[in-house]
Amino acid sequence: MWIPTEQEKFGVVLASFRGTVQHGLPLEIGDTVQILEKCEGWYRGFILKNPNAKGIFPCSYIHLKSADIKNKGQFETVIPNEDSVITEMTSTLRDWGSMWKQLYVRNEGDLFHRLWHVMNEILDLRRQVLVGHLTLDRMRDVKQHITARLDWGNEQLGLDLVPRRDFGMVDPDEISVTELYRLMEHRHRKKETPVPASTHHLFVQAKSLMSTNLGEELEVFFSIYDGREGRPLSERFFVRLNKNGVPKSPERQCTLFVDLGSSDLRKDVYVVAHIIRIGRMGAGEKKNVCSVQYRRPFGCAVVSIADLLTADSKDDHLLKVYACNTESEWYQIHENIIRKANARYNLSGSNTGLSVSLQLLHGDVEQLRREFMVLFSRGVSVTKKLGFSDIIMPGEMRNDLYITLEKGEFEKGGKSVARNVEITMYALDIDGQILKGQVAAGSGEPGADEYHSFVLYHNNSPRWAEQIKLPIPVDMFRGSHVRFEFRHCSTKDKGEKKLFGFSFVPLMQEDGRTLPDGTHELIVHKCEENTNLQDSARYLKLPCSKGNLPGNNQAVKGNKESFWITSFLCSTKLTQNGDMLDLLKWRAHPERIGDCLSKLKEIDGSEIVKFLQDTLDTLFGILDEGAQRYGLKVFDSLVHIINLLQDSKFQHFKPVMDTYIESHFAGALSYRDLIKVLKWYVDRIIEAEHQEHIRQVLKATEYIFKYIIQSRRLFSLATGGQNEEEFRCCIHELFMSIRFFLSQESSGPGPMNQTQVVFLQTFPAVYSELLKLFSVREVATFVRETLGSLPATLHSDCPLEAVKLQCIAKTVESQLYINPESRCILLPVVLRLLQVHMQEQRDLVMCAHILTSMLSLLKKDDSEQPLLEEVDLIVDSLLGVLLRTILEITNRPQPAGNTLRLQYQDVTGEFVACLLALLRQMSDKHYQKLLQCFTSKDDLRDFLLQIFTVFRILIRPEMFPKDWTVMRLVTNNVIITTVLYLSDALRKNYLNEKFDYKVWDSYFYLAVIFINQPCLQLESFSSSKRKKVLEKYGDMRVMMGCEIFSMWQNLGEHKLNFIPAMIGPFLEVTLVPQPDLRNVMIPIFHDMMDWEQRRSGNFKQVEAKLIDKLDSLMSEGKGDETYRELFNSIIPLFGPYPSLLKKIERETWRESGISLIATVTRLMERLLDYRDCMKLGEVDGKKIGCTVSLLNFYKTELNKEEMYIRYIHKLYDLHLKAQNYTEASYTLLLYDELLEWSERPLREFLNYPMQTEWQRKEYLHLTIIQNFDRGKCWENGILLCRELADQYESYYDYRNLSKMRMMEASLYDKIMDQQRLEPEFFRIGFYGKKFPFFLRNKEFVCRGHDYERLEAFQQRMLNEFPHAIAMQHANQPDQTIYQADAQYLQIYAVSPIPESQDVLQRDGVPDNIKSFYKVNHIWKFRYDRPFHKGTKDKENEFKSLWVERTTLTLVQSLPGISRWFEVEKRELVEVSPLENAIEVIENKNLQLRTLITQCQARQMQNINPLTMCLNGVIDAAVNGGLARYQEAFFVKDYIVNHPEDGDKIGRLRELMFEQAHILEFGLAVHEKFVPQDMRPLHKKLVDQFHLMKSSLGIQEFPAYVRASPIHFTNGSPRTCRNSVPNILSPEGARLVARRSPLTYPAVNRYSSSSLSSQASNEVSNITGQSESSDEVFNMQPSPSTSSLSSNHSASPNVTSSAPSSARGSPQLLDKHKHSRDNACLSPRDRPCSAIYPNPLDSTQRMIPHQIGDSTLPRSDPNIATPDKGSPAKNTRSQSPVATPRSPQKNPAPPFTPSPTECHSAGLVSNSPVLSGSYSSGISSLSRCSVSEASGTEGPPMLGVASDPPPPHTSSHLPTSASSGSDELTTRRENKTPPPYSVYERTNPRRPVPLPHSLSIPPPTEPPALPPKPHQLRIANKLDSDPRRLEQPPRPRPLPRKVSQL
Fold first, then answer.
1. Range name among 1316-1325, 1420-1429, 1523-1532 with the lowest pLDDT average
2. Exposed site from 180, 939, 1128, 1366, fewest CB < 10 Å?
3. What is the rounded CA–CA span in Å between residue 1370 and residue 1804?
4. Rounded to an integer, what is the distance from CA 109 to the centroid of its chain?
C-alpha cells in the first residue's frame, strides 16, 4: 500500500534507472527527485526538471537529503536544507552550461575558455564546501571566492545581479524593499568601484647578481628611500650572496616591506639596493697578500616604485648596478643616481645587473597571506617601516632602536697616509655583558652579537650612513649601552686590524627617558691597541657625548676626533618624554600635579596612546583624591584624550578605551564630579564669548556619558543602589540645561549655532549608554523632548538644519528606534521633520537615507497592531510628499559631474524603494482609509494622476541598472497590487456622468507600458528563470491584461473617447507573444470596431491607426506568425475567446470587417518578412525584394502615401548601400513622379528641409541624374536633364540651364566613349513554405551584376538562402515541392527579348548606343529546352528534335526599382524540327553576313573570326552538316507526310542556297584580306566550298539569287527591312503542337570583332563540342561587347557546376554532343547560356508567304490576318490577352529615334540580344515599322480577304504588329502597381523623322553579292511609297513631363 512520505521528501539519484517496470520513472545519475509516496522498497515521485512525469523507482537508487516543505499537501514544494551558496552554485552552473555552449557556437573563444576555467574552479570549491572539512575562516574565504566568481560569470554572460547577505541569496519577500535596494546598491557599487586599499606592501625577492668579475661573497641591503625628503622610509633588508652571485640561503631571499601609505606610492620614492663585497681591500689585489676579509663598497642599484604601478608587477627586473667614481661619496651614491649626477658614478661593469622580483600588494597582511599563499610559502621576512604606520593598532608590540653610523673625524695617528677605519659595534647590558643576537644589520638575516662596518680606503673622514637595528627587550633597556670600537685595517704586514679608539652611548637616562631621537656627536676615546674594554664600568664614568659635557672639561673638548651617530626609537613601551613620565609618577611629586595636567595637552598623541590605560588611571586617581582642587583640570585632560582618539591615526584606540571603561575603570564616585562639571560647561554656553573649548567638551559627550554611566553602575553595585533618585535628578537637570541651550535661536550661523551642531552630532551616541540605566520609554522621552526643543523655523542655509537631519538619521538607526515601544514615541518627531524637508526639497539625500532606515524595519508579513498604526502614520504624513518628491527629482536634468550623477541616482533609487516598501506594507484598510481622506474628487483625481505617473517612471528601463531583474520584479508586483486597489476607486468615482478622460487615459497608458516592459517578457528568459518568476509572481502581464479588459468593459459609451487613440497602445499589447494575454486583448479590437461603426458608419479611423501602429511596431521587432493567425484564423485560438475574424463574422458589418482583417494580415505578412530580413547583416536581394513588396502594398492596396514615400527612401538607401545605382534612380523617381513643378510649400520630411515642391523636385532630379550616371544608364539621365533644362529655360535661369546642357552633353560623351557591360539575366524559382511570403512559390527574373555568370549567381543565391536546396532540372515543380516544409531554388539563365528593334536594326548606329537597348526596358525573357518527340532516328537525330520554348513576361520591366521582378505570365510553344533547322541556318547566315561586313568595313583588327567561321560552316557542310537536313526534310516521305510544311521546306532550301551564296562572297572577301601565312588554309576552304556546292547539287545559283544586287550600306550583304511580318505579337499564337518555322526565328548575340581564335577555342572547350576551331562556329560564340576579350565568356566549369548543363538548361542527350551532328543544330538545342546566344523576337524577321504566285514571297506584313474562328485561339496562356485593334488607328513613326528625340517610347525600350556587330541590316521589322507600314499602305491590304492562308499557316500569323503595341498599352493601363520605369510614359505618339545622322546613305557601288530572291520587289515597293523619302523638318522637342502616379 502506498503511504505518503513525511520525512523522505527529497533525494539525489545515485545510479541510472531505466524505468522498465510498469509505471517506472527513468532516472539519470545526478537527477534530483521529489518523493510523494513509499511502498515496500519503492518510491513514487517525479524528477524536479519535469514535474509532470510521475512514476515509481527503487529506494536504493536514491540518496535522501533533508529538506523544508512549503504548502504541504497536493501542491507542496520542497526546498533542500543545504547551504544557500551550494544551491545557488548548482542552479547557476546549470544556467551557465547551456550559455557556455552557445559561446562556442558564436565563436567567442576568449570568454568560452575563461568561463570554462571559472566553472571548473567553482566545481572544485563546491566539492570543498560539500566535504565540510574546512575551518570556519577557510569556509568563509571559500564562500567569498565562490560568490565573487559567480558574480563575475553572471556579469560576463549578462545575467542578473544576485542580492546576497553573508554570501547567501536573499529572498526579496523576506526583507523590506528598502533593504533589498541597499543590498543591490551595495553589490552594484562594489562591482563598479572597488574601494582602494589604504595600506600597501612591497614584495621583494633577490634573485642573483650577474657580473663578469665576481669571485667574492656579497651582501645586498634593500631599503625604501624617500627622494623628496632625503631619508630612508624603512629598515634594511639584508641578503647574503655567494661567489656566484646567488643567495646563500634560498629561504632568506624574500621580504615584504609592510605598511606603506598611499602617499608613499609616488614617483620620488625608490627601492635602493646597496651592494657590499667581502674580500681584499683592493678589488685587484693578489690572493696571497692578505688573508683578512674586509667589507668594501661594490655598487648601488635604484628603481622607482612608480614604475611598479605601471609595469606588469610580476615581471622580473634587471637593475643596473653603478659604482662611485670616488669612494668617499659612497654614502650618497643612491642620491647621485636618483639626481642623475652622472659625473659622480659609472656602471660597475657593462654586464653587471641585479635581478630582482618586485610586486606591489594591497590590503591587510593577513588577508594577503591567505590570497598569495605561494609567495608566503618561501619564508618571507617582514621589513618594517621606520616609525609607526599611518594607523597605530592597539596591542602592537614594538621596541626597536635604529642607530645609523653617520661619519667620523680621525687623526692620522703618526701615519703618512690616512687610516682605513672599521667600526665594530656591540650592545651591552647593565652588567657589561654583550647582548647576544641583538645587533641586526637588516631584516633578512638573524641578529648577531656585533656588527662590522665597511672600510673606506685611506680616509680619515669616512662617511658610512649604515643603519643598524637594535631590537633590545624593554626590560633590558635600563642600564644598557652601545659601544663602538675603531680599528685601523692595515694592508701591509699580515693585514691586522689595530684598535685605536672607542665611543659609547647609554640607551636610557637616569630619569627613565630613553636616548632622544636625533644626531649625537660622540667622543672618540683613544686607547692602546691591546686595551681590554670588557670591563665597561671603567669607561662608563667617562663622558660619552660632546653635547652634554660640563663647560670646564676642556681636555675632552679639545679632542679633534669625533664620531657621529643618528638614533631613532620606535617603541610602544618606552618614552623619551619627561612630562609624560612626571604625570605617571604624580604621587612622587604631588606639588607638580597642576603643571603636569596642564602640559598633558602638549604631549604628542602617540606618547599618550602608548600609556593610555596608565594615563587614565592617573587622571581618575587624581580626581578621587583631589576633586575640589583638580576636578576641572582632570575633566579637561579627559576631554583632550577622548578627542585625541577621534583622530584617524588613533581611532583604533577607541576599543582600548572601551575595554578600559568596561574592565579596568574603578572610579565609582567619579560620576558626580563628571555630571557637575559637564552641567557647569553646558550652563556657561549661553554667556561664553569663546565657545571653542566648550565645543571640545561637547564633542567628547559620548565617552563622558560612558564614564558617568559606568561609574554609577559601579557605585550601585558597591552600595546596593543608593542615591538612585539623586542620580536621576542630576541627569534630568543636565538634560534640562541641554534643552535650554538647544532651544536658543540665533539670527544667523553664529557661534551658538556651531555649538548646537557639535552637540547634535554626538547626541545619538548617548542613547545606548542611557539605556543601561533607564527604561526604553524614558530614554525615548529624553530624546523626543531634546529634539523637540530645537528651534522649529530656521533659514535654509543654517548648518543646524542639516545636522538635525543627521541626528534624526542616527536616531532612526539606533537600538532605541528599533524597539517598537520607543518607536511609537519617536516616530511623530521624525515624520514631522522629514515632511518639512521633503516639502521644501532640501537635504533629499539625507531624507532618503532616513526614510530607508525607517522602512527597513517594516517586514512584509508583519501584521501586528502597532505596526499597522505606524504604516498609517507614515502614509498620512509622507505618501503624498514622497510621490511629489519622486516626480520632482526624476524631472530634473541630471547633474554633469560623475559623483553628483551617482548621488542623484542613489537618491532617486532610495526614494523609489521607500515608496515601494510603503505600498507593499499597505493593506485593504490602509487603502480604504487613504481614499477616504480625499475630501474632493479633484484631490483624488490629482492623487491618481500623480501615482500613475510615478508608476510609469518606475517602469522606465533606466530606473534601475540592467541586471537588477529582482528589483524590477518586486517593483512590478507592488505596482500591479496597487493598481488593482486603485482601479476600484477609478470605477466608483470617474464613470458615467463623472467620467474623467485624463485619469482613464493615464490608467490605460500605464497598463500598456507595464505589459510591454522587457523585464516581464518571460519568453526571453531561460527556462529555469522563467519557472522561478512564474512560481513567485505568476505572469503579471496576463493579470494586467485582464484588468485592462475588465476596465474597458466598464467604460460603456465612454469607449468612444479612446477610439482611435488607444488602438496603437492596445495593439502593442497584443503583439506580446503570450497567448492568454492576446485572447484577452483581441476582443477589445472587435469592440472598438463595433463602436466606431455605430458612431460613424465605418471604421476608417480604426483601420488607419491600426496600420500605422503595425508598421512602427513590427519594424521595432515585435509580433510573430501566431499573432497574424490569431487575427485571421477561423478556429478559436488559445482558450475561451474566439478569434477576431470569428467575432466579426457575426456582425452586420462583417464584409468591411473581414476586408480589414485580410488587409492587416497581408500587411503583417510583409512586415514580418521585412523585419526578419532587416535583422540580417549585409544588404542582399532579400532585403530589397522585401522592401519592394511592402512599398507596392502601401501604394496599391492601402494608398498610404506617407508610408509609401518612407519605404521608397528605405529602398533607395538599400540600393545605394549595395551600389545598385540604376535601381536607386528608378526608386527615387517614384517619389519624384508624385511631385509637380509648383510652388506649393512642403513641410520638413525625412532628411528634406522645409522647401517648395519645385525645389524638392529639382533636388530629386539632380540626385536621380547623378545616380543614373553612376549606374551608366546615361540615356535615362539625358531625358531628365532635358526636362530640368526646360524648367530652367521657362524661368530664364540661364546659369543653371547652361550647366544642365553641359551635363547633358557630358552624358552623350559617356555613351560614346565609355564601355558598358551587358548583364546576364537569370530566372529564379522559390519553392517551399519556408520562404518569406513575398517569395514563396513564385518565380522571378533577376538582372545579374557585372561579370556575373550563372555559377556565381547561383552561389550568391545559396549564400543568401543558406538552407535552400538547388534543384538540378528546369522542369516546373509539382505540388509536393510547393507544399514542402523546406526551401528549393531553381535557377537558370534566360535571354532578354527587347521590345523595340528600331535602333538595333539601323545601319550606322554605333555599338555603344545599341548595347543600351539590348538589355534595358525588358519585359520578356525566353528559355529553350530541346527534346525528342516520337521515335528517335539514330542515323539522323534532327528528324525528331523539337524545341520547347518558354517565354516569361514580368510584372515590371528590368531594370526597375529592384534587380528582380516577379514573372506575371509564362507561355510555352514547341518548335518543330524543320523550324529548328530554318532558325539554325538563318542564324548562321546572319553571323556570316555580320563578319563579312565587319571585315569589309575594316572594323576587324584581324581576320581570324571570319576564317574560323567560314572554316566551320564549309567543313561541316562538306562532312554532312547540311546533308543531314536534306536527308531529313527533302526526302519524299517527309514531303508526303507533312504537306503543310511545303513553304518551310522551300524556305529551308532557299536558306541553304543563300548560305552557299554568302559563303562564296565571303571567300572572295577573305581572299582579299587573308595574310600570306594563311593562304594554304584559304585554298583548302575554296576547294572544300566547291565540294560543298556539288554535295548540295548547286552548279550555279538560281535566277532569283543572281538577279540584281541588293543595296549594302558598306558594300556588304543586307536584308530588306520589311521582309517578315510580326509573328510574336501578344495576340499571336501561344502554344501549339507544331509551329511555323518563322514564328520565333532565332537570332543570337554574337561576339564582336575582338573575339580571337583563342576565345573561340575557349568557347569550344567550354561546351565540350569540339576542340578544333573549324567546328566552333557551328555554334554561337559567347556574348560580349566589342571591347571585351574572351574571358567574358562562361568559365570552363560551366557544364559541371550548373544544374544540368552549361547554362542551367536541362541535359542534352549524349549524341547531341557530336560535333558533326551538332553543326546545324539550333542554338537552343544547346543550353541557354552565355555561350549560346538568344534567338530574336519574332518582330525582327518576317517570312514570305504565297498569295497568288507560289514562287514569290509576300512582302506585305498584314496578310493572313486570322479571323475570329482562327486557330490562334487554341493557345495556352496564363493571362488574358487584350482585344486586337485595327492597325490603322495607331500610326507610328517609321523608325525608333535616338534617345535624344521626344516620342512615345520615352526612355527607349530594349531590343533583343543582338550584339553591336550587327552594323549591317538584317531581315527584320520592328513593331513601330510594321505599324507604320500597316497604317499607311492601303492597297496591299486588299489581298487579305481574297486569298486566306492555309489553316496551319495562318493560325500562327498575327493580326498585325500594332496590335502587339496596343496589347502592351492595354496591359500597362490595367496594371495595378504604379509604373516604376521611366519608360512607361503615356504621352501620345508623334511621328518623328529619321535624323540625318542616321539616314541611309545612297549606295556607292553595287556589291558583288546578288540580292536575296525576294528583295527586288520589296525595294520597288519602298520606292513606290513617297513618304519614305520625304524628310519633314524636325520639330523642337517639347519638355517631357514625368508621368504622374
1. 1523-1532
2. 939
3. 32
4. 17
- Cell 526565328 -> residue: 1641
* CA 1831 to each of CA 1620, 1784, 1852, 1862: distance values in angstroms, whole numbers, following the listed order: 16, 4, 21, 13
Q: Distance between CA atoms of 1646 and 1813, rounded to whole angstroms?
A: 7
The mean pLDDT value for 1772-1800 works out to 39
- Three-state secondary-structure class, residue 362: strand
The CA distance from 1192 to 1188, in Å, is: 6
**Closest CA relative to residue 675, chosen from 559, 538, 770:** 770
- H helices of 1235-1349, in order, are 1253-1270, 1274-1290, 1294-1313
User: In the Cβ-directed half-sphere of 668, how many Cα atoms lie within 13 Å?
Assistant: 11
The β-bridge relationship of strands 231-232 and 10-13 is: unpaired
State how far the Cα of 447 lies from the Cα of 1669, in Å rounded to an integer: 105
Who wins on pLDDT, 251 or 26? 26
What 3-state class would DSSP assign to 481? strand
Residue 1261 has pLDDT above 90, yes or no: yes
CA dihedral 1015, 1020, 1021, 1022 (to 10 degrees): -170
Cα(909)–Cα(350) distance, integer angstroms? 64
Q: What pLDDT, on a 0 to 100 scale, did the predictor assign at position 1172?
A: 66
User: Are 738 and 694 within 8 A, CB to CB?
Assistant: no
In the numeric block, which cell numbers belong to residue 870? Answer: 505606524
Give residue 908's identity as a one-letter amino acid code.
Answer: T
Q: How many residues are recorded in the chain?
A: 1941
Q: Which of 1723-1735 are b and which e, b meaning 16 or more Cβ less than 10 Å from the residue's Cβ? A: bbbbbbbbbbbbb
Most confident of the following: 695-704, 794-803, 1135-1144, 1703-1712: 695-704
C-alpha dist (Å) from residue 1020 to 1024, 1123, 1917: 12, 17, 81
Measured CA to CA, the distance from residue 1369 to residue 415 in angstroms comes to: 118
The H-or-E segment that residue 270 falls in is strand 269-279
Q: Let me know the angle formed at the C-alpha of 1513 by 1511 and 1514, rounded to the nearest 5 degrees.
A: 65
Would you say 917 and 177 are in contact if contact means Cβ atoms under 8 Å apart?
yes
Instruction: Report how far residue 1445's alpha carbon sits from residue 1426's, in angstroms, rounded to the nearest whole number.
Output: 9
Query: In sequence order, what are the residues at sequence separation of 6 or more whose Cβ sits closer than 8 angstroms to the Cβ of residue 1627?
Result: 1768, 1777, 1778, 1780, 1854, 1855, 1859, 1860, 1863
Closest CA to 1119 of 1169, 1076, 1157: 1169
Cβ-proximal residues to 1332 (8 Å cutoff; 6+ apart), any chain:
1168, 1169, 1172, 1173, 1182, 1186
Query: What is the percentage of the chain residues whose pLDDT exceeds 90?
Result: 19
What's the rounded Cα separation, in Å, for the pair 1246 and 1226? Answer: 19
Question: What integer pLDDT is reported at residue 566 of this predicted model?
Answer: 93
- Three cell numbers at 1458? 529592384
1493/911 Cα distance (integer angstroms):
93
Query: 270: which strand partners?
Result: 225, 304
338 in helix, strand or coil? helix
Confidence at 1608, pLDDT banded by 50, 70, 90: very low
1090-1118: per-residue pLDDT in tens?
A: 788 788 777 777 777 777 777 766 665 55
Element (H, E) at 1231: helix 1221-1234
* Separation CA 1490–CA 1488 (nearest Å): 5
Instruction: Please state, in angstroms and rounded to a whole number, the distance separating the CA atoms of residues 890 and 949.
Output: 11
Contact 837, 845 (CB under 8 A): no
pLDDT in tens, 903-938: 555 688 888 989 998 888 888 888 888 888 888 888
Q: Which three cell numbers stand for residue 24?
A: 517506472
